[in-house]
Design goal:
Blueprint lengths: L1 H40 L5 E2 L8 E6 L4 H10 L4 E2 L2 E7 L4 E7 L4 E5 L6 H4 L4 E4 L1 E2 L2 E2 L1 E2 L1 H12 L4 E4 L7 E4 L8 E7 L2 E8 L4 E7 L4 E3 L7
Antiparallel strand pairs: 1-3, 2-6, 2-7, 2-10, 3-6, 4-5, 8-9, 11-15, 12-13, 12-16, 13-14, 14-15
C-alpha cells in the first residue's frame, strides 16, 4: 500500500510539473509576440510597419485628439501607419511644458487596400478617408518621405501655413540632402517648407541657405 501510494504521489507531481511547463511555454510565446508587436509599434519616426505595405499611403481623417488612439488601433489591426509628431511648448498661467503633438492635427496616414476599407472606416475615432468620386486618393510617396526625413534630423520641425508658390529648391548637403521644397526668408533666417498637397498643409524647418540649390521651373514635378 505504501509503495502504491508513493507511485501515485510521484505521478501527480509529474503531471503537475508537465502542465505548468506547457502553460509557462504558452505564456512565454504570447509575451514574446506581444513584445514583437510593441517593438514594431514604437518607432522614433512615428511609423509602424504592418502587413499592407504594398499599398500607397492614404490620409485618414480623425476626430479631434484621437490621432494616437486611432493610429494604435489601426496598428493592432495590422495596417502600416505613419503619425508624424513634433515637439511644441505650451504655456499655462502657472507653468510651461513641452509636449509631443501631431504634426498634422486631425490626420494619420495609413497603407491599406482601397477596395477593402471598411475596417479602416469602422475604427474608433475615424471620420473618413480623403477621397474623390473614384475612391481614396493616395498621398505622394515623395511627400511622405520628405516629412519623414525632416523628422529624422532631430531639428525643430513645425507646422507652416500652406504654400503654393515660391522658389523651389533641392537640398544638396546636410541631414536633408535630396529633399525638395520651397524656401522662405523669415527675419533673416531661411526655412525649408515641405507641403502635403492633398492635405494643403505644410511643415517647415530652419536651414542654411548655402545648402540648397534652386530648381529650374518644372523640375521635380
Amino acid at each position: 500500500m505504501d509503495v502504491n501510494l508513493g507511485l501515485l504521489v510521484v505521478k501527480l507531481l509529474y503531471t503537475s510539473l508537465t502542465t505548468s511547463t506547457v502553460a509557462f511555454g504558452s505564456l512565454h510565446q504570447v509575451g514574446t509576440k506581444r513584445a514583437e508587436l510593441r517593438s514594431g509599434r514604437q518607432q522614433a519616426n512615428g511609423e509602424y510597419v504592418g502587413t499592407n505595405s504594398e499599398f500607397p499611403w492614404y490620409a485618414v481623417r480623425l476626430r479631434s485628439n484621437f490621432e494616437r488612439c486611432s493610429s494604435q488601433i489601426l496598428q493592432e489591426k495590422g495596417y502600416p501607419t505613419f503619425l508624424p509628431l513634433h515637439r511644441t511648448r505650451r504655456v499655462w498661467s502657472d507653468r510651461t511644458k513641452e509636449l509631443e503633438v501631431p504634426l498634422f492635427s486631425g490626420y494619420t496616414f495609413c497603407r491599406f487596400d482601397p477596395q477593402n476599407r471598411l475596417a479602416i472606416l469602422t475604427t474608433p475615432g475615424v471620420v473618413g478617408i480623403l477621397e474623390s468620386s473614384a475612391g481614396p486618393i493616395p498621398v505622394e510617396e515623395s511627400e511622405i518621405e520628405a516629412v519623414r526625413t525632416l523628422l529624422k534630423s532631430g531639428l525643430p520641425v513645425g507646422p507652416w501655413p500652406f504654400v503654393r508658390e515660391g522658389q523651389r529648391v533641392v537640398v544638396e548637403r546636410g541631414p536633408f540632402t535630396g529633399v525638395e521644397g520651397l524656401v522662405a526668408s523669415v527675419k533673416n533666417r531661411y526655412r525649408l517648407i515641405v507641403s502635403l498637397s492633398l492635405l494643403q498643409r505644410s511643415v517647415a524647418v530652419e536651414i542654411d541657405r548655402e545648402c540648397v540649390r534652386p530648381l529650374s521651373p518644372g523640375a521635380g514635378q
